[in-house]
Amino acid sequence: MPTDERNRKLLIPPALFVGQARLEPMARIYSAEEWQSRFPRAEEKPVNTVVTIGNFDGVHLGHQAILRETQRLGAAPGSMSVAVTFYPHPAKVLRPTAAPPLLMTLGQRLDTIEALGIDATLVLKFDERLARLEARDFVQKYLKDALHAANVVYGQNFRFGYQNAGDASTLYGMGIDLYPCPPLTVDGTLVSSSAIRNLLQLGNVEEARRMLGRPFALAGEVKPGTGQGRVLVVPTLNLDTEQELLPKMGVYATEAMVGGKTYRAATNIGVRPTFDGVHPTVESHLFDFRENLKSGKLEVRFWKRLRDERKFSGADELREQVLRDIEAAKQFFATLR
User: Fold this and answer.
1) Which of 82, 166, 203, 210 has its CA 20 to 30 A from that of 129?
2) What CATH class does 215-335 carry?
3) Which of 172-181, 260-269, 316-325 has the lowest mean pLDDT?
4) Where are the beta strands (DSSP E) in 208-280?
5) Among residues 79, 43, 83, 85, which one has the least CA distance to residue 66?
6) How far apart are CA 225 and CA 199, in angstroms?
7) Which helix (H) or strand (E) holds 210?
């Protein structure tokens, strides 16, 4: 099967990432000791784990393929599927000045992994102590003593342990079976977190969506704005997010999830130059939304870039352009299947 066709079959509808029902919630464990307390080894009926290890920033199509294979193998009787991940990102400890801005918060990452059916996630605090742990010691402490891992599913360039000395052969030499997953490409480009970051920084949210298998999303809280937009232009909801990476400044066709409902929207990311703003804001005008919210959860999903942000002569000219942006966003959504 061609790689891009395999990619399309891996696409996850965006609705699966919000409120997807599970028979049981995914266990979220934060240390080997907590794991052993939560899942004590029963000698008469031991449970082995199928494990995958990674940062999983963005949980893109390549990550999804690995996590799906982990879930499939872990569904066998006497097994469970486990994702081992790290917080903070190792680069923030090892080379903080060069660490990339992350695509997701830890909460988003865990929610998305859960939506893929993984039974449990072990979140390891990445610090100097863990960074200096030799590869074989990592395998012994976490994979064998704590998780009782029988199999590890891994992707391209899989490395772990002090100075990245551990690889698949390390695991095999310590009695763990291996399941490699091939890399995925979109139009000949390797799917990776760094590629998606580059696309978002260019404002290419459509290509980023193809690599993610869903629209890129910013999540956080509604925060009160200055009120100028509601009075002078159109009413908006302002997003306060802890996410590190924003798409390139400009106007986008988006969807906004608030109060358990989804609204199509037009979103501006920028400094509001017409009003002499300085700090970046994320403002969304939700179609057919009448409430004047001051707080609550908000998620914004980016479907298409409409234009750059620019300074207008005043509120009237800005409002005319915003109305054109809203119409352009509506026309875009009308073309979606």
Assistant:
1) 82
2) mainly beta
3) 316-325
4) 216-223, 237-241, 250-258, 261-270
5) 83
6) 29
7) helix 205-212
Give the pLDDT of residue 165: 96
Helix (H) / strand (E) containing 315: helix 315-335
Spatial CA neighbour of 28 closest among 38, 19, 18: 38
CA–CA dist 29, 131 (Å, integer): 19
Token reading at 66: 């690995």
Neighbours of 163 (CB within 10 A): 11
Query: How much is the CA Rg of the chain, to the nearest whole Å?
Result: 22
Q: Which long-range contacts (CB under 8 A, 24 or more apart) does 269-278 make?
A: 269/309, 270/309, 271/309, 273/309, 273/310, 273/311, 274/311, 274/312, 274/314, 274/315, 274/318, 275/226, 275/228
Q: Beta partners for 27? A: 120
Structure tokens at 254: 């988006």
CATH topology of domain 3-186: Rossmann fold (3.40.50)
Residues 159, 146: Cα–Cα separation, whole Å: 20
Judged on CB neighbours under 10 Å (0-12, 13-18, 19+), 294 is exposed
**pLDDT tens digits, 98-121:** 999 999 999 999 999 999 999 999
Q: Please name which of 175, 171, 172 lies closest in space to residue 139, comparing C-alpha atoms.
A: 171
3-state secondary structure of 180: strand
Task: Name the nearest CA neighbour of 215 among 178, 264, 254, 269.
Answer: 254
* Token digits of residue 301: 């999903």
How many other C-beta atoms lie within 10 A of the C-beta of residue 270?
Answer: 20
CA distance 48 to 38: 14
Return the half-sphere exposure (C-beta side, CA atoms, 13 A cut-off) of residue 140: 5
Return the DSSP state at 21: -
